[in-house]
Amino acid sequence: MVNERQAMLEQSATIYFGPWYGRSPFFEATRRAGCTAYDVYNHMLLPSYYDDPVVEYWALLNDVVVWDVAVERTVEISGPDADVLVDRLTCRDLTTCAIKQGKYMIVTAPDGGIVNDPVLLHVDRDRWWMQLADSDAGLYALGVASQSGLDVDISYPEVFPMQVQGAKAARTLEKLVGSGVYDLKYYWCDWFHVGDIPVLVSRTGWTAVQGFEINLLDASRGDDLWDAVMSAGEEFNIRPTAPVEARRIEAGIMNYNSDMTIENNPFEIMGLERLVEEQPQDYMGKDALERIRREGVRRKLVGVEFGGDALEAELTWFWPVVRDGKEIGRVTDAVWSPRLERNIGYVWVPIELAEPGTRIDIESEHGHIVGTTAAIPFLDPKKEIPAAPLAPE
């Protein structure tokens, strides 16, 4: 598998490292660590290939991995009316979100569309961080703020996250910041120091295993933090990786701009309906989303399973779902799950085909494929794995 994947990469076009692409404080460290391919995400360079994805999958589940996610640009909303504005941007009810608590957030458009799906951290009184997926949601927040009459500031602070994820992530973090890391609950955060480097650590991640994001607050210390993390994890076989696509798809985690865009609303995506919370206060898109709640949707993003041998590479473009010679949907992800030992992914289908177990016909670059719709997530629907209490061994 690794040879075929590497051959595909070698045939791909090269990204020019122009100055208009942002580089994270960990960029040079990722190159020294052997990253051979980068993507462009939020106008920055995202490390995308080190090794065979199956090797990295098992490293995540059994050991500990580190991933440069400084591309998750942090937008800060602060000021006396920050709480009001943040709550106005989302269909989630944030009125009870405590300081140092986090939420998975849907930023909603006036028509109910999904502008972004960041991790939101309430880092201090009157101070919130949205850590963005790949869209300019900071500009959207600035636009909403400019018309709101609220006393708020919108800024891009010097905050650069890296993910430390996996079975040994907590033990790695303990060596860096002390036993206080075991007090962090799932989707909460706190301030620490790694040596003399100030950081904010959140118990979050794009993997749905136990793990953390370490937010560097001083761009000049990127190499120092990277080296400290790698040293702390050495005894646990730490390694840098690219996004572990199979694990995030097993867990029902979406990728903005491929699985969903501003053209979609949360009711159209299996699992995200729960985020449209009923609440008395107004927010962007509330009227539209309440109408959709009443009327229902015509299409749905659901899981899909494929028979046959393990897929040797990820999608290079969407696969059409066809019926009677017409395209009626599309597959947005398809990947081999080493643990489930089958090919899985996500697919957009008309609502009448969304029930799990429905056969669908797919045209791929490999030819005709028969798929079967499935529930999302494929594993651990209650998020018991990442949310389990942390305990030192």
Report on the architecture of this protein.
- The mean pLDDT is 94.
- The chain is an alpha+beta fold and 393 residues long.
- It has helices spanning 2-11, 27-32, 53-62, 82-88, 137-146, 169-177, 222-232, 245-250, 286-295, 384-387, and strands at 37-41, 44-49, 65-68, 74-78, 102-104, 107-108, 114-116, 119-124, 127-131, 153-155, 160-165, 189-194, 197-202, 211-216, 239-240, 299-306, 319-323, 326-337, 342-350, 359-364, 367-374.
- It has a six-stranded mixed beta sheet with strand order 12-13-14-11-3-15. Strands 16-19-18-17-20-21 form a six-stranded antiparallel beta barrel. A five-stranded antiparallel beta sheet has the order 5-8-9-4-10.
- The protein folds into three domains: 2-67 and 158-244, 2-Layer Sandwich (Gyrase A, domain 2), CATH 3.30.1360; 74-136, Alpha-Beta Plaits (2-Layer Sandwich), CATH 3.30.70; 249-374, Beta Barrel (Elongation Factor Tu (Ef-tu), domain 3), CATH 2.40.30.110.
- The two termini are 36 Å apart.
